[in-house]
Amino acid sequence: MLTPERHQIILETIKKHHTVKLKELVKQTGASESTIRRDLDQLEQSGQLRRVHGGASLKQSASDEPSMGEKVSKHHEEKELIAAHAASLVEHGDCLFIDAGSTTYAMIPYLKDKDIIVVTNGLNHLDVLTEYQIVTYVLGGYVKHRTRAVIGAGALQNLQQYRFDKCFMGTNGVSLEDGFTTPDPEEASIKQTALHLSKSRYVLADSSKFEQVSFTKFADLNEAEIITEKQRRRFREFQEKTNVKVVTP
Amino acid sequence: MLTPERHQIILETIKKHHTVKLKELVKQTGASESTIRRDLDQLEQSGQLRRVHGGASLKQSASDEPSMGEKVSKHHEEKELIAAHAASLVEHGDCLFIDAGSTTYAMIPYLKDKDIIVVTNGLNHLDVLTEYQIVTYVLGGYVKHRTRAVIGAGALQNLQQYRFDKCFMGTNGVSLEDGFTTPDPEEASIKQTALHLSKSRYVLADSSKFEQVSFTKFADLNEAEIITEKQRRRFREFQEKTNVKVVTP
DNA sequence: TAGTTTTTGATTGATTATGATTGACTTTTG
DNA sequence: CAAAAGTCAATCATAATCAATCAAAAACTA
Q1: Residue A22 CB lies within 7 Å of the nucleic strand D
Q2: Domain spanning A72-238: which CATH class is it, in words?
Q3: Region B113-132 average pLDDT
Q4: Among candidates B70, B131, B137, B146, which has minimal Cα distance to B101?
Q5: Per-residue pLDDT at B33 exceeds 90
Q6: Residue partners of A58: CB distance under 8 A and separation at least 6
Q7: Where does CATH 3.40.50.1360 sit in chain B?
Q8: What span, in angstroms and rounded, lies between the C-alpha atoms of A48 and B62?
Q9: Using the beta-carbon criterion (under 8 Å), do A138 and B133 form an inter-chain contact?
Q10: How far apart are alpha carbons A152 and A149 in whole angstroms?
């Protein structure tokens, strides 16, 4: 196998899952650990990824520096599990709204081969969605640089055209008193409206979001089903009991 | 086997698989290793592929430098000059529509520091536009994977909300009889509508587009001003005479 | 046709990529 | 905290691939 071919595989895998273990790459490429290590070295050198203990991950945008390396990878793993569970709720023929944000982004690889229609305001999502041949619509409106999300009055109006079977939201805070909250009021409006346009409503939240309160509230706790790691585990246990195949990578 | 025939085979194989081993090409063409090596040398010289240890691969678009003195880079250079000229027509306070496509994409760096508003259906454009702090709106609608453009009825409807001072279009064909043409009817509709919503209308066309006719016509020649390399040169001469600083990198 | 240039294929030693191994280091586990 | 497991960078031998060279074959020229 040629070097650029392996690099391609590595980059694509990271793009899909945000992180990848070295052993996973060894399996996928058939190359030795040494070779993969060298590849990762090169790719890090050229700034295309970031090495972490045990593998590699997406290069983080400068803003969100991880305070502790270990915590981040655990966090990532939790996100991945939540995302996989969320995706398993999606059925063929569904029309979805998928919110901008990293947790919802992680869902996309698990939606592969599902016959669905997706509407999103997350510009980063589009690459992966269309790569998986998923019928994708993007909201029109103001492009927010920092979060790569589409927001604003136009987006809100544009959103009203659609009706969803399910919607999947990210959140910055989950709290008993203040419900689901997020920093940007503009993004909150989008979330709020999308929730109201959808039959089933899911909010994805890893443990770091609990008892956090952010600036703008976009829903009460009872307005949406919350998907957490604990729920995912219950789900898996159920599946193991009933002998249904678990939808995980 | 003739030389151009082998080159054809090589290029097609690379296009298909992104990378190709030398031995694979030896098998496919029946020529010797040495000959294939020489072919690869030539093709790399003319900028049509990138040699790697063990074979060859696609030339990366993003990371690779556009090296000087190649045929390909001449095309690039022409595009760049056209783009620079087009951007120089933009004034502070303008509201622009910028079409999806590589030539219009090249305009964006020259728009830096201009106080403008940009609407586009080109998803690739968004990164650069927002990076340069340009106020950017994206059309909403169906996301076309291949060209990374937003198209469809929704996009068309969304587009109607806006009014532009200037619009900049790409094209696949320019012909006296058939005007401006492009392969995808959906994209043509977008172009057509955007043209009608704009006070000034510009179509960017490098020399390879002349006397080409594509599937769908989106405008007559007299419906838009066409920006070509020849015009750019006149523009530069004028600027030199009048001692105005030329807007080039 | 004979002479010239171009293209091709085989051979060479040099260069590069690879996989296994090692001991050092890090993280997890009890 | 200490043992165990996992991961790391460094090193080395091997195998694959390379550029350079030269002679034979083919194409071209006069």
Answers
A1: yes
A2: alpha beta
A3: 91
A4: B146
A5: yes
A6: A14, A15, A18, A19, A49, A50
A7: 71-242
A8: 12
A9: no
A10: 10
Confidence class of residue B212 from pLDDT cuts 50, 70 and 90?
confident
Burial string for A182-219 (b: 16+ CB within 10 Å, else e) reads: bebebbbbbbbbbbebbeebbbbbbeebeeeebebbbb
Classify domain B71-242 at the CATH class level: alpha beta
Write out the two tokens for A120. Answer: 């999103």
Helix axes A33-45, A3-17, angle to 10 degrees: 80
A54 Cβ within 7 A of any nucleic strand D atom: yes
Instruction: Please write the tens of the pLDDT for every residue from A221-247.
Output: 888 888 876 665 554 544 444 433 333
Task: Note the residue count of chain A.
Answer: 249
The tens digit of pLDDT for each residue in A125-184 reads 998 898 788 999 999 999 999 889 999 999 999 999 999 999 999 999 888 889 999 999
Average pLDDT over residues B43-71: 67
Biggest distance spanned by C-alpha atoms of chain B? 62
| Separation in Å, CA of A36 to nearest CA in chain B | 16
- Lookup result for tokens 């594509």: B214
Token pair of B65 as six digits? 């430098």
Q: Say whether the ipTM exceeds 0.95.
A: no
For chain A, residues classed under CATH 1.10.10.10 are 3-57
Q: What is the CATH number of domain B3-57?
A: 1.10.10.10
* B137/chain A closest Cα distance in angstroms: 4
What confidence tier does A28 reach under pLDDT thresholds 50, 70, 90?
confident
